Amino acid sequence: MRRLGIGKRMSTSDHILFSAGGIHLAADSASVHCIHESLPTQNESGTNDWFLGLAVASERLLPVTDLGVYLQGGQSIGRVIEVARALGIAGLKIDEVHGVSNKIPEPIIDDSLNKSLDDSPNDRREGTGGSSTANDQQTSRVDPTETSPVLNKAILDQGQRYRLLDIEKLMQSARFLNVKCPSV
Hints:
The protein has 184 residues and is mainly beta. It is 11% helix and 34% strand. A hairpin with a 2-residue loop joins β2 and β3. The longest helix is centred in the middle third of the chain and has 8 residues.
C-alpha cells in the first residue's frame, strides 16, 4: 500500500494519472486515500460483472469494483485505489498509476467515452467466450438520466490525454452503488 502524501506533499490541484481497462484517467488526489499494490477479493454471487467482491484493507472490508469494466473498457489488471474515506468506502481496481500532475484540466470536445456510456445497454464484459448461461444474460441497465462520472475535461501529460474522473460523483451514482445483478 502506498499512502499519498508521504514523501511528497500533495496540493489541492494535484491529480493522480492512471489507466483502467485501457482508459487513461485522472482523479483529484483529495479523492484518493491510498493505492494498494494488490488486494485479493472474495467474489459475491449475484452481482454485476464489474463488482469484484470484498477485500480486506487495513483491517477493514473494502468493496472493490473493476473500474475498467464499469466504464466499459477492458478488464483492469493491477492496483486498487482506495477512495478517500470522507467520500465513502470503495476500492477501484485499475491497471497502473502513471504519475501525478498539477496541470489544470482543460475542456475537451471529443466526448466519445461518455457517449459510449450513455448508449450502452448493459455492463457485461464482451468477448469472454464460452456458452451463454442464464447468469450471462443478466444485465445492469444504465440510467439515461444519470450523468457519467467521467467529465468533459482532461489533462494532457507527456502527449497522453487523461480524462478527468469525478470520484465523488461516482460514489453518489445509483448505478455504482447497486452492485446486485438484476434479472432479465
